[in-house]
Amino acid sequence: MNYPGLNDLITRALQEDIGHQDITTANLVSPSLKAKGIFLVKTSGILAGLEVSRAVFGLLDPDIVFTALISDGEKLEPGDRIAIVEGAAATLLTGERTALNFMQRLSGIASKTYHMAEIIKPYKAQLVDTRKTTPGLRFLEKYAVKIGGGRNHRLGLFDGVIIKDNHIMAAGGIIPAVKKVRSLIPLTVKIEVEVENLEQLKEALEAGADIIMLDNMDTDTMRRAVLITNGKALLEASGGINENTIAAVAQTGVDFISSGALTHSAVSLDISFDIIEVWN
Q1: CA 113 – CA 259 distance, rounded (Å)
Q2: What is the 3-state secondary structure (H, E, C) of 209-230?
Q3: Annotated catalytic residue: which of 154, 164, 223, 232?
C-alpha cells in the first residue's frame, strides 16, 4: 500500500485513543512483560487493511514482530487466523483497538463490495464507489473497494469533472456547462454529466459528454437511456443502489453502477485480537 499520509493518519488515530496515557496498561502491565497475540475471524468476509494494522504496532514499537498468515483480498471464514503479533505486552494491549478498528472497517467495505460485485458478474456493468466516505479515511476506504473487486470513481474534486445539477443551474444549462469546461481543462480529461431525465440525457449527448450519470432513474428509463445513447457515451447508473436493486440495474445495459452504500453503509467485519501467551 503506497499512501504517503498513512503514518500521519495512524498517529492521529492512536493519539485519539491513547491521549496522554493508556492508564489501564500503564498501571497494570510491567514494561518487561512479553506477549503473543492473534487476530481471529468471527464472521465470513474479505480481508482488507492488514498492512494498516501492521503499521499501527510498528509506530508504537518498531521491535514488534507482526507475522501475516494471509493477505488482503483473501476470503475469511470464522476461526481463520489473520496474523500473529509478538513483543511488549503493553504495546499489544495499547495498540489492539486502533489496529482492529482499521482492519474491521476496511474488511467490512471489501466484503460488501465483493458481495455486490458478485451479483453483477454476469453483466457488463462494473461496480464503482463514490465520494461518500468517512472524512480522513477516503484513500483507505477506496483501497478496500478495490480489494473487494470494485473500481474507484474519482478520488476527489481535483481528479475528474462531474457536472451535477447545481453546476448546471449555475452555468445556465448542460450545453453551456460542458462547452465552458471543455475549453478550459486538458484534452485528456473526461467530462461526466449528471442527468435526471431523458431530455437532459439528449442534451448531454449533444454537448459531447464522455460519461453520463443516470441519477435516480427507474430501470425502464435506464433501458431507454441505453437505447438512446447507443454507445455515444458511457452510462453510469447512480442513486439508492444496494444489494437488492443492483442486479436489475445491471440488466439495463449500463456500463457502470456507482453505489455510496459500499462505503457509507458497510458493516465492520467481526474480528478479534486475543493474547494467547505471556512471558518475562
Answers
A1: 9
A2: CCEEEEECCCHHHHHHHHHHHC
A3: 164
112: annotated active-site residue: no
Compute CA distances 43 → 32, 77, 106, 209, whole Å.
35, 6, 14, 44
**180 flagged as catalytic:** no
**Residue whose entry in the numeric block shows the C-alpha cell 475469511:** 76
- Which part of the chain has CATH 3.20.20.70? 117-264
Radius of gyration of the chain (CA): 23
65-105 pLDDT per residue, tens: 999 999 999 999 999 999 999 999 999 999 999 999 999 99
How many residues are there in the chain? Answer: 280
The domain made up of 117-264 has a fold known as TIM Barrel (3.20.20)
Instruction: Name the segment(s) of the chain with CATH classification 3.90.1170.20.
Output: 6-113+267-279
Q: Out of 34, 42, 97, 131, which one is annotated catalytic?
A: 97
Distance CA 106, CA 76 (A): 13
Kindly name the residue from 72, 86, 141, 194 that is annotated as catalytic: 194
The pTM (predicted TM-score) of the whole model is: 0.95
Cβ(3)–Cβ(139) below 8 Å = yes
Catalytic residue flag (residue 132): yes
**Rounded average pLDDT over 114-120:** 98
Mean pLDDT of the chain: 97
Half-sphere exposure of 181 (CA within 13 A, CB side): 26
Q: Cβ(103)–Cβ(52) under 8 Å?
A: yes
6-113+267-279 topology per CATH = Aldehyde Oxidoreductase; domain 3 (3.90.1170)
Asked if 153 and 131 touch (Cβ cutoff 8 Å), the reply is yes
